[in-house]
Amino acid sequence: MAILQKTREKAGLAVSIIIALALLSFIIDPGTLETAFNAMSSKNDVGVINGKKISYVDFQQDVERFTTINEMVTGSSAQNEQQQTQVRNVAWQSLIDKYLFTVKAREAGINVGEEEMKELLAGDMVSPLISQNPAFLDENGQFSKEAVQNLVNSIASDQTGRLKIYWDYVQNSVNTQQYYLKYGSLISATNIQNPLMLKRAIADNNVTTNVDFVLVPLPYSMDSTITVSDSEISSYYKDHKQLFRQNASRDMEYVVFEVKPSETDVNVASEAINGLYEEFATTGNMKSFLARNSEKSYSDYWYKNGELASVNSDIDAFVSANNEGTSEIFKNSENVFFAARVLETAQIPDSVFVKHILLSSTDAAKADSLVEVLSKGENFANVAATNSLDTRSAADGEIGSLGWFTQNYMIPGFESVLTAQIGKPYVITTQYGTHVVEVTAKTAPVLKKRVAILQKTALASNETFNVYYSKATEFANLASGGYQAYKNAADTMGLYSHPLKNVLEGNSTYGTIEHAKEVTRWIFDNKVGKVSDIITVDNNYFFVAAVTGIHKEGYATLEEMKEPIRQQLYSEKLSEKAAQDVAAKIAGLDDLQAIADTLHTTVSSGVDIRFASMAAQGLDPKFIGVASVAPEGQISAPVAGSIGTYVFKVNSRETESFYTEDDAKNAASQMGSYTTQMIVPVMVQDANVKDNRARFF
Question: Which domain holds residue 315?
């Protein structure tokens, strides 16, 4: 375990080891593959990858393994919800790599041999995942093969088995990365841009067409003479079915009862904060007082004028106007009570430049000696180079320089640097060890205040909770007969039913209400017309939901797409008819101004367009395409665009040189990078991978 401790120390204070193979720029985080993933397997499967079923139990074992690795690398077992999601994503990506990507890579003739792995782990072609790993760096920050061997040798004596887990992970990561590098190179090699293609790209981007045109917008009202038949809709659906691929989703309605404090509850909170007010205004131990009595804990933060507005505008106004004293008690619209006390006022810089020497937590005596040495004028970087455990921090090129710190960008425990004297070293202790710290520069000081805030929120009592639960129960009982009963119950009780379309299985938020995954689970487990019992969320919201539609994974049905297709075909027909109407009105006219007068519109003059950059011009793509190749000096036939009908004349064309050969090559390179980024998504879609994690997490 000493090796892992060394890893953390050598990584410095900003250690952040990404478990996934982040060095590969073409690996896409699993979250971005959602549109390629399918949603349904069996009830107990987290997913299916290339025909391999992934059970919940097996997936959780992988998650626990990556959680262990994360704990070993970071030295912390604490994980918030975002970090847990990240670990699950890494576990899923590892399964994609194992059962899909490396399998497909081998099928393409790619292999990573035993001798190759030896070279990658500790030979002459060491993988960056090894050479850049802090666990394998020596005291000078250089890669050490001996450090690798030391870890391997320690595995046998490690009773916890954690070192083996870590080393297996490292080896697997190196192996997988090599497959990605080889496959990516294979794909990149096919991205050829020959001289003819290069010349064409430069020409397309450098030609500017100057046009005058008139535009007749499409009418907003429906044209009853335009009809779209069912056979046309069916034909369009068959010809464009690939456009209608969808994830599984549900349509639903729900009624929600939010438990809000009653007037009596608000008065109780008001009495409580009033009872604490005198002690708040006089206590000498504010940190302890707030810990016992306030929802907002004590903070050493120095506030500038305006910074407390996000807490409460009245509090901010009081603090801005006073250098000392205690405010009156304020209440906001959410029934939260506040009082503020200005504890201290001072001129504090926004940022300071900090240097440090990191020692172990047991080296307090050595720290004092180093302070004495530095106080006599010894060069800080030299002392840091020979004594600091952190040899990677060098913000200005000198070892020991951490850079500029602000209150929002601060190593925990370093807060005192904001008020420290420039050029006077001193000792502080943090979770990382003992530090000899020196502030070498500051920004101009600004008036700031240290403020204590007493906060109490009016909470619903048991009696209030029961009142809302009774209302929810009454509604649930009336709605229990099915969807029509649900609608009748909402009308009878005067409640708003929230309609939602295409709710995905991963959804856990409804409006502003979070942590409502149980509602989503219920609608995915029930049929159309079913109405739920009460679903409680955060013990503060009571949902009653009804399923109104089911959309299966795969291709949307013709019935589901009927109306969108009808609208699409109607728009196309309307556009064509509008162009025909314009053609009839301007027949025989050969002057653009006369055409504009006849059509009751105006001429847009001297508009420069380029075919190669349609998206940036804000014009109809069809118009740009036609104008880019139209002959000069002639009035065009009406062009049926998506927003209206165009009639135009090309005035001139110019070939410029602002788009260079380097621009064309960079564009081709970006396209090649995009191609490699699509390796995994295309494999996932082709293998019909099913990702059901949203069902469980």
Answer: 263-348+453-457
Q: Are residues 7 and 72 in the same domain?
A: yes
* Whether residue 11 is found in the same domain as residue 115: yes
Q: What count of other Cβ atoms lies within 10 Å of the Cβ of residue 521?
A: 16
Instruction: Dig out the tokens for 25 from the structure.
Output: 């720029």
Query: Residue 592 falls within a domain, yes or no?
Result: yes
Tell me whether strands 644-655 and 207-217 are parallel, antiparallel or unpaired. antiparallel
pLDDT at 212: 96
Pair 569, 622 in one domain = yes
As to burial, measured by CB atoms within 10 angstroms (0-12 exposed, 13-18 middle, 19+ buried), residue 350 is middle
| pTM confidence score | 0.69
**Is the domain of 30 the same as that of 84?**
yes
- CA pair distance 442, 421, nearest whole angstrom: 10
625 and 534 in one domain? no
Alpha-carbon gap, residue 44 to 553, rounded angstroms? 18
Q: How far is it, in rounded angstroms, from Cα 398 to Cα 391?
A: 10
Q: What would the pLDDT profile of 568-577 be if each residue is shown by its tens digit? A: 999 999 999 9
Taking only the tens place, the pLDDT of each residue in 298-322 is: 998 999 999 999 999 999 999 999 9
Tokens of 393: 């921090």
Judge if 395 and 511 occupy the same domain: no
* Domain total of the chain: 5
| DSSP symbols for 483-551 | HHHHHHHHHHHT-PPEEEEEEETT---BTTB-S-HHHHHHHHTS-TT-B---EEETTTEEEEEEEEEEE
Is 557 inside a domain boundary?
no
Q: What are phi and psi of 460, to 5 degrees?
A: -70, 135
Are 632 and 653 within 8 A, CB to CB?
A: yes
Instruction: Give pLDDT tens digits for 576-633.
Output: 999 999 999 999 999 999 999 999 999 999 888 887 665 546 788 899 999 989 999 9
Q: Has residue 10 got a pLDDT over 50?
A: no
